[in-house]
Design brief:
two-stranded antiparallel sheet; 2 strands; about 5% strand
Length: about 180
């Protein structure tokens, strides 16, 4: 049976991260705003308020979640680039998805935010050195030190993951 929670599988990357792999992930980060916008294009209010799976977030919540999550990630990158192994602030993404802005606002606000955010993030990523990609932050929730190159991969996957949620719903529901 298809796992609707992970339409492209879970993020998995083992070993050293090559420059070529980083470049691919950077391209995926740069492409996400257009791909996500295209995936929700033409959806009406009822469709935006349809959960992508039973018990899952609505399309609207998914789009707003991507904006929230990627905004947090950019801040984590900046902290790790300017501080020595900073502890980042985890957040309760499920609770954020239940807040009024995630449940009620038009997706266009977050699509514009994602577009601007990814434009800035892409410039930052393009300017980073190998040494900077090796910098880390500490995630108190997981107890792990996370390298920025691995974080880049996780967020490239994250954008594709949530875009695939919406695309798979559209295919299954015929809208």
């Amino acid at each position: 049976m298809e796992d609707l929670r992970y339409p492209i599988g879970k993020f998995a990357f083992e070993g050293d991260i090559s420059t070529a792999q980083r470049r691919l992930w950077m391209q995926e980060v740069a492409a996400l705003p257009g791909e996500l916008s295209e995936t929700v294009r033409g959806l009406g209010e009822a469709q935006l308020d349809t959960p992508y799976r039973d018990g899952g977030w609505t399309v609207r919540q998914v789009v707003h979640h991507v904006a929230d999550s990627h905004m947090n990630s950019l801040m984590r990158f900046k902290l790790a680039l300017t501080e020595e192994r900073p502890a980042i602030k985890p957040y309760e993404e499920q609770l954020w998805a239940e807040l009024a802005d995630s449940r009620l606002m038009p997706v266009e606000a977050s699509l514009a935010l994602i577009s601007a955010l990814h434009a800035r993030w892409t410039v930052l990523l393009d300017a980073m050195t190998d040494e900077q990609f090796a910098r880390e932050f500490y995630h108190p929730g997981s107890g792990e030190h996370v390298r920025l190159d691995r974080c880049l991969g996780m967020y490239a996957w994250h954008g594709r993951h949530h875009t695939a949620h919406i695309a798979a719903l559209r295919e299954r529901a015929g809208f």
